[in-house]
Amino acid sequence: MNVYEAVASRRAVREFTDQQVPREVLERVLSAAAWAPSASNLQPWHAYVLTGRPLAELKKRAGERIATGDPWDEPEYEQYPQVLKSPYQERRSAFGEQRYGALGISRADLEGRQRAAAANWDCFGAPAALFCYIDRGMGRPQWSDVGMYLQSVMLLLRAEGLHSCTQMAWAKYHKTVAEVLSPPDELLLFCGISIGHEDVTASEPRIGRAPLEETVTFLDGC
């Protein structure tokens, strides 16, 4: 698989099989992803990889919180601006319509949307998950570095025939994640990534992208 194929085929998969992901594959992916660019080579990320019993324990604890209606943890960073201006609000709304529409869940069906969202904390059935942390003292440029690292991880997973789903949703249960992982206090959970083999029998829509002219400006000339 070349880079173009990896980029074009990478998407957020939300239905996985229970086929296990060998540790040597994950080690190969993460060793290569370490070459992701970062300003002054700070490498401001720290990843925890869970499979087997540790992941099952985390899913169990998160499921118990959902079942009891336990509220989300106090957020440690703002996922979206409080007010999304155009065209970002329209893009977000279109995503919701496509995502929940494919599941047969209407905008008014809040219970159905909550059930669908709850699948996040089961990692959509994936047998492996990565939790990416960043040092609390880092600034916006270092958060950008973490994004490049995560993109590298996801593209390398495609090269291995695997799929993934990045989930900021795990930050809403960051205390539960910390109970299982025991990260040092100076680390902040940015997101989780579910990793595994796609369940090809599931019908998951591919969410489109804005046309090139909406996001790119070319300035040509001699």
Order of helices and strands: HHEHHHEHEHEH
The total of helices stands at: 8
Average per-residue pLDDT, rounded, comes to 92
- Broad shape: globular
Describe the structure.
- The chain has 222 residues and is α+β, with helices and mostly antiparallel strands.
- The chain contains eight helices and four strands.
- It has helices at residues 3-9, 23-33, 52-67, 88-102, 110-118, 140-159, 174-181, 212-215, and strands at residues 45-51, 128-135, 163-167, 187-196.
- The chain has a four-stranded antiparallel beta sheet.
- Helix 2 crosses helix 6.
- It is globular.
- The mean pLDDT is 92.
What keyword list fits this structure?
globular, four-stranded antiparallel sheet, alpha+beta, 4 strands, 222 residues
Helix-strand layout with pairing:
Blueprint lengths: L2 H7 L13 H11 L11 E7 H16 L20 H15 L7 H9 L9 E8 L4 H20 L3 E5 L6 H8 L5 E10 L15 H4 L7
Give me a quick take on this structure.
By secondary structure, the protein is of the alpha+beta class.
